[in-house]
Amino acid sequence: MSGAAVAAARYHWNNAGNPAARAARRLVDTLGPVRQAVRSDDPAFDVSLAYAGLPIGHLNVLRLLERRRTALGGGEPLLRTVPVTWPDLRRGRFPEADIVLVGAEEARVRRLPAARAVIAPFRVHLVVDTSGGRDAVRAAISKRERWEFGRNSRHHDWALVEDGSAEALRFFYQRMHLPTMAARHREQSRTEAFTVARDHILRRGRLFFLTEDGRPVAGVLCHESGGTLTTRLLGVLDGDARHYDSGAFKAVYHLLLGWAADRGVPAVDFYGTEAFVAKGIFQWKRKFGPHVVLPPNHFATKRLYVSVRRDTARVRDFLVANPLLEIGPSGGMRPVYFHDAARAARTEISAKARSLGEARLVDLDEFLDG
Description:
Blueprint: H1 3-15, H2 19-31, E1 36-41, E2 49-53, H3 55-71, E3 78-83, H4 86-90, E4 99-105, H5 106-109, E5 117-121, E6 124-129, H6 134-140, H7 143-155, E7 158-162, H8 166-185, H9 194-201, E8 205-212, E9 215-225, E10 228-236, H10 242-245, H11 248-262, E11 267-273, H12 280-286, E12 291-293, E13 302-308, H13 313-321, E14 324-327, E15 333-339, E16 360-363, H14 364-368
Parallel strand pairs: 2-4, 10-11, 15-16
Antiparallel strand pairs: 1-2, 1-3, 4-13, 5-13, 6-11, 6-12, 7-8, 8-9, 9-10, 14-15
């Protein structure tokens, strides 16, 4: 099988939203074994993490929490694998770590021990309703975000231009998307192959450029399905940080929402992110007034089990600094903020977004006694 065929198969396996494809993926992920966990230690911060379950969680969830640990004063992670099985996890025989995370289908997660644990969605999507027109879309955006966009627009001649040509896609992919991924994620950069962008995203989607004085400086490749426009690949020219500083990258989102609202497109999906409120992507996309929903693919039924195994001052610091979304058996989501007598709940890390329930404040003394 060619590299392009492998990339296409992987794309459809990860993104197909039709019921048959979702059912097949759920079946495979429900029956698959787990043989090892990845443990991440950090002597500088003295909080160890371990992840078991769906392999993609090692790439997404564990790396995100390692970055969050670093932000609190940690250093480079020390990784090692440890053996574990599903029967071990069901009986509460977890890997030796301060916080253990398990990514799996909901049916598996709900069978794990409930004490000292929170169940989060594995991923969420942030979707902006554009059916009410441009004025309604603008009114839903935070005042600060509207003000910044208005200020930046006065200093830049920005316009949104659609161009679905082969030449435009190659320019976007090579000069914008790949350099941006490399600049932002370095060796951890992951994206779709060019053949997937060409044959499976653009063929059923749209490519937009943000121009500044007539010159393209940013772009977004979107997939279109069921009346929803989903942002899939993004980038700024040559990955240059100046296009973030100028507001050009955010301007893509503002102008894309206006474009959709003017043309009767009912919704724009800003795509997926992990369910940790302090994550930068969640925070700035939240300012556009989206609904927080479960993904439209197989991730809709996957959950992240977060189990706190040890009670230390550093663990408490980490939990308080990283509020997350929890999900109930009915699928409703709400933010969870940890706190104790010495640590106030970090509610200034806002989870204000449509479709989320009222925040739950969790006293760590009670939670860790569970």
